[in-house]
Amino acid sequence: MNQSDPITIAVIQYPGTNCEYETASAVEAAGMSAEIFRWNRHPEELIRFDGYVLAGGFSYQDRVRAGAIAAKKQIIGTLIREAAIGKPVLGICNGAQILIESGLVPGNHPGHVEMSLASNAAAGWRGYFCDWVYLRCQEKGASGAFNLDFTPGEIIPMPVAHAEGRFVSSDPALLDRITQSDQIAFRYCDAEGRYQPSFPINPNGSFLNAAGIYNPEGNVLAFMPHPERAAWMRQIPLDLDGSLRTATLEHCRMPGPGLRFFTSMKRFISNRRTGR
Amino acid sequence: MTSNITIITEMKTRDAIASSAFHCLVHDLAYNNRIVKLERRECWRIELDLPDLAARMELGRRLAEETKLFVNPNKHLYTVRTSPPESIIRTGASESSIVHVIVTEREDSAGKGALNQLRSLYRIDRHIDSISFGFLYTLIFAPGVADPMGLAAEIAQLTDRAHGLLCNPHSQMFEVF
Amino acid sequence: MNTNRIVPISRHTHDESLRDLLKKLNIGMTPPEARKIVSILGRDPHIVELFIFDIEWSEHCSYKSSRSTLKKYLPTDAPNVILGPGEDSGIIRFTDALDGETYSIVIAHESHNHPSQVLPVEGAATGIGGIVRDVDCMGAHVCAVADGLRFGNPAGAQPARTRWIIRGVVDGIWQYGNAMGVPNLAGDVYFDDSFDDNCLVNVVSLGIVKTSRIIRSRVPTEARNEPYDLILAGKPTDSSGFGGVTFASDILDASQDDKRRGAVQVHDPFIKNILIMRKANRAVLDLAFERDIPIGMKDLGGGGLACASSEICSASGFGAEIDLDCVHTSMDDLPPEVIACGETQERFIFAVPRSFTREVLDIYNTVWELPAEANGAGARCIGRVLEEPIYRIRHHGEVVCEAPIEQITSGIRYERADCECRHEGMEPEGLPPDNLADALLSILGSLNGCSRLPIYRHYDTEVQGAAVLRPGEADAGVIAPLELTENCPAGIALSVDGNPNVGAIDPYWGGATAVAEAMRNVVATGAIPRALTDCLNYGNPENPSAFRQFVDGVRGIADAARQLSQLDLPDAPVAVVSGNVSFYNESAQGLAIKPSPIVACVGTMPDFARAMTIHFKNPGNRIILVGERRPELGGSAYYRIVRGVDGTKPLTVKWREERAAMAAVHTLISHGYACACHDISDGGFATALAEMCLSHRRTRLLGAHVVFTQPPIPADQFLFAETGGFILEIPPDHLKECTAILNASGGVWYDCGCVTETPELLIEIAQTARIHLPVQDMRLAWLRGLEEIV
């Protein structure tokens, strides 16, 4: 592949997906080209893309369990093969649930479902939760494709919107392994970066405040918050503590922290092409 | 002495979750020759300290009809059982080809929430020790299917993309009977 | 026709026996109405015809009690109005964009009160589901929903039921809206005993459409030149929404009873997502526009297939022939009246040229695989457009309905009697409390004064990525729906308002203040109010005093819409472009709800970046109060919560002053002179000032210090009167411009203090600190008010 070929990303669209358009806009804003890819198109058409985003929403209306039915579709089989050769795959929110339900993440034992994104368990809240939270990037530096453009330990605001976002596993040893091998890409924290376990700082009761988990290779990320909804400064509320956003006209139009997930993805793909 | 009642509710209209689950088993997984139907009900298992059978039935009826926590008569049909849910009446095809699977959350907020509300709003929590909520799936297999119980367990327990659907064991539990 | 299913109306010469017959059939119409059908048809009706007329002549479809009042008073036209009331939604011009296109705003407003009382989750969910269909079928992309909710008192006579309704309605709204993928950006909530037996769930939906691509709910005139088919797309028809019908055994087969028994309306946001969220319907419309194929499209709502198919054809003078055997159903052997009139959700009807039919069907059935992936949903050709104005339905080869189409769709009308009803209220006795800080705290912690966070935190405000200001941040929700796609910075503000406690004292001012408050909220974000929608929730219109409340409310809305007018076009009213009337909101004992007009206002601004939040930004900035405080505290939070009375003098609006204040505030914001703005409403000035210090997100809080040396009315009334007005935060370097603009407006205003680093609220009146509170104390009370309820 030629270094100058445009980078193309498939944004996967299931029946019930509802974030595909703004996700495609964020991909484009990061300097890649995006195509919304319907789940039932021929799987071979998927192979020509450089990377993949499973957009958020409610595929199959979360019937049986969030992500459970989408994970069974043929398209995921193709995605697993493409991920195995190192292409980047980002699952956002419902996309993360699909990655977990299909065993792509955490992927320590490939092919096996090793975790669940369980119903939020937070004292003081019942059901779906939508608000802005703070996230802290992994402190030892990026271990994967989607946080290359963040500084280690950086604190960013981002919205979450889900009812099932608690990473759990019935295997305690697995959680240790994930932690030790630095697979947790981002963790929920307060405005000062402290990993408080209490609601709403940790909005769903996830272990170690995990908001996003990589596979061991670092090319697949299951991420519950919505970077595409923090891709521009205008999307960020003005009343956040230490808000990045100011009320100036120009600042509204600047890129937000969420866009760097996609610029990181672009850098990762470029590095892959040059063999770095 | 501890004793149980179970309130089982069923949608009066077609259940979309059951339809989608069935479609997935038949079209996306390889169960098309073996499963012929899938039904879903919701199941509230209530642990009581009430030995008298008639009193248990009466409490079950009150919970179902005098509270709004379990049954909405506009959309549900319900039954109260004083025996465990395993004894649900089996209709249709031959007995052996019908298997029930109950799936519950490891952190059962629905059950706890119902008990809290019974205590705080209705004040009819006497004799009630705990409430647990689950989905009760009824799998109806083709006649002559080998080891229906084993097949139901395979369909229940999610292990990888090709196997299992109804229960993700990392956050849920299931029983087959 | 099968004579077994003819209803022998003409055989019943006495009203009594005819009434019994209609009741047995579960037909709501009166005996004279039934006889009118016989005279229209020249024969007794088939049961299917009887149901169709019954629905078309219902209050919901025909506005039979309200239409003449609405027509008489409401302003529905203005230069920016593209489509007023009459079709599924109203449409106004929005903005030009860089792509050379002009964009319009589509807005609709409805109630789903009665269903939500018995089935809160399904009722609220299908309310959202219905209103987004109304917007989608104009060809628009749905980009926001909002809701006006009125619940009973959770600590009142029926606490368990009331809480069940509150939780159910909130769950229904999020389960539907979030799954479908439309942000919920505005709304209001009141709790009051008068809603114990009859909650109100009003829903508003807003969409965006290229003006050149508006689709009408009518068959195109091209159908005169080539054959047009009618296509039904969406969920398979079932018996849901056929209202608990029990059938008479004298003309019907009792064994069919189960299939007729209406169940509830069942929502399916999954199918709706595939239909409307830039998926299947969008593909049909894109293809039609690409090839310049004229089509018509309408959603199926009340009255189901019969209503939608007859209305889409009769709107342009055509007739229709429907074959019920072609309708896809999810239950076998549904009776024809259920297929024709049942209200299965998630369905649309299209009128397309026959040469296009195949491709349209393929989009639903093959491209999106609806039959397999969505439980038997899909699209079918179910009939054709007739040139002659006849409406005909066939079932199993027989004609079950044949009537002149305009007779079906023209409805009926009543002139209802009205009579005045006086509110019996009291002014408070004794002296006002010394401690106004406690009064403020109890308002902030009250059900109607506290933060709505526990409700709106369930709603996805961020989906689609267009939110600029969300609930809690500003007085109205603001979106920039074209920023992502067209690089056009124009913003839309949306607010929903209506204080039932004002309407209870004076229905006229209940309507007028709802409009003023909704407009003020939009102005406070920096937008200009451009259109209104209303949902008019009242009691039984056959009761003259309840009907008078309705008429007065409409008059109040109409006067406010005309008098306050568009800020940059003084002669143009802020037109009422869509709306809904909901009567019979009363308990089994016949106790009506408080008169509750709920008004939505949509405003526009050229650049979303100017949108204003309510929170204080910088210590040292000046605090400006705009608008006089008047001693009219009837229905105010202060009277009801602190003084324990309703009062007698309702909140009013002085048109000229109100309009001048809005215009001045809009000018200040659009010039960038202000950095926070909040309107004054429930709880008055003191509460509004407190809210500018409060945020659920912010933990580093700012305070305020204001001083009034000699207010013109007693301190408690000055601080808590709910007279409309604004509070602005102005940086000192803009004080000069601000002074000039406010002086030119001719209204009352006060430069009354400043934002402080110390997180305390200090209000001094006549050299005395009347309120001095840590902001943190206020925040705790404010955040806890609803905590245990939702």
Description of the structure:
The complex is a heterotrimer of chains A (276), B (177) and C (790). Chain A has 276 residues and is an alpha/beta fold. Chain A has a single domain, classed as Class I glutamine amidotransferase (GATase) domain (Rossmann fold, 3-Layer(aba) Sandwich). In chain A, 19% of the residues lie in helices and 21% in strands. The radius of gyration of chain A is 17 Å and the shape is globular. The model of chain A has no long low-confidence stretch (mean pLDDT 94). Chain B is of the alpha+beta class and 177 residues long. Chain B has one domain. Chain B has four helices and six strands, in the order βαβαββαβαβ. Chain B has a six-stranded antiparallel β-sheet with strand order 3-1-2-5-4-6, covered by helices on one side. The mean pLDDT of chain B is 89. In chain C, a hairpin with a 5-residue loop joins β2 and β3. About 2% of the residues of chain C have low confidence. Classes of the chains: A alpha/beta (276), B alpha+beta (177), C alpha+beta (790). Chains in contact: A-B, A-C, B-C. At the A-B interface, α2 and β5 of A face α1 of B.
